[in-house]
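Here is the promised in-class demo. Please do not try to memorize the tokens; focus on the logic of going from shape to residues.
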């Protein structure tokens, strides 16, 4: 297993790597695989590496160095199609996989592979596919031409049609231990121990997010601003909260990121209010968290968590974003 993990060049998800590599090794590939788990946990990277393992001709596939592996890594292999959601909207942005994208993929799968024995499709964030697109894929998903393989990724498999899930081999990726993320940052990216510790905690075990945050300073700058905004909102009146909602609801992607960030912050407050500091995310804001835990208390912090979770569910159902955000901000306590 250790040798397999080394060949795949991945940190974490050892059980998933072992399962997928066994299918390759025994030539018992399934028609479709579903990799689910939180954003930036490594679903896309695992899908690409799995595609390499299937098509690479080296003895210890994937070798990571041959022409096949390099083409897949660069996203230009003629027999590996990668479909990702398209972003639409200038004001309120949404990500969607539509039926035309799926039909184009089905047509490609009807053709003979260019230079491999089979075709592979990687479709990321499949929860963004509308019902028409998902239903169009069903028959091909069940019986791909020429032994083709579909690899779908999704943040939450519960957002997919049951008929899609039933046709896939499911692998739900779990967050890595915080300590393992910290060690990976220090050992593989020359990250300073204090920074690695903070990023590991903030990542919640998502190594992909931690690497992105290390390499892109804007991510941490946004995070700091989101938390500063939350602290200011807790001191603000109704009018000020409405004004803030006006600027937040328009960008769905930023809104989702902000809600995730706030959810983690309230979670930390709840943990401290309950008498523990284990598993905190925002370890660099400990003093503020302790102050809020004392002033707000466990019941109100749990209410804030519930309000954010409700807002996220409503947004997933395409509720009016402005109204959802306004109601959420009014539900936050004064502190």
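The designed amino acids, position by position:
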């Amino acid at each position: 297993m250790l040798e397999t993990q080394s060949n795949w060049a991945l940190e974490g998800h050892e059980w998933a790597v072992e399962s997928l590599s066994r299918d390759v090794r025994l030539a018992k590939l399934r028609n479709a695989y579903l990799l689910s788990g939180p954003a930036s946990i490594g679903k896309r990277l695992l899908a690409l590496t799995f595609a390499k393992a299937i098509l690479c001709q080296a003895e210890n596939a994937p070798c990571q160095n041959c022409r096949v592996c390099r083409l897949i890594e660069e996203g230009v292999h003629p027999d590996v199609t990668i479909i990702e959601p398209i972003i639409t909207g200038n004001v309120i942005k949404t990500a969607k996989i539509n039926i035309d994208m799926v039909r184009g993929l089905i047509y490609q799968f009807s053709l003979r592979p260019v230079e491999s024995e089979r075709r592979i499709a990687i479709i990321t964030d499949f929860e963004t596919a509308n019902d028409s697109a998902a239903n169009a894929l069903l028959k091909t998903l069940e019986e791909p031409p020429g032994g083709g393989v579909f690899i779908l990724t999704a943040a939450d498999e519960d957002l997919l049609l049951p008929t899609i899930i039933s046709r896939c081999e499911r692998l739900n990726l779990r967050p890595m231990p915080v300590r393992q993320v910290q060690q990976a940052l220090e050992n593989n990216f020359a990250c300073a121990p204090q920074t690695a510790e903070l990023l590991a905690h903030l990542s919640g075990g998502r190594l992909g997010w931690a690497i992105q945050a290390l390499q892109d300073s804007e991510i941490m700058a946004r995070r700091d601003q989101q938390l500063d905004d939350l602290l200011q909102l807790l001191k603000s009146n109704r009018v000020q909260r409405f004004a803030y909602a006006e600027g937040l609801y328009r960008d769905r992607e930023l809104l989702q990121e902000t809600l995730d960030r706030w959810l983690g912050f309230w979670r930390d407050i709840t943990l401290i209010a309950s008498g523990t500091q284990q598993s905190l995310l925002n370890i660099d804001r400990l003093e503020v968290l302790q102050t809020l835990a004392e002033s707000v208390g466990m019941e109100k912090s749990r209410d804030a968590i519930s309000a954010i979770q409700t807002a996220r569910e409503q947004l997933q159902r395409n509720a009016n974003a402005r109204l959802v955000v306004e109601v959420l901000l009014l539900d936050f306590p004064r502190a």
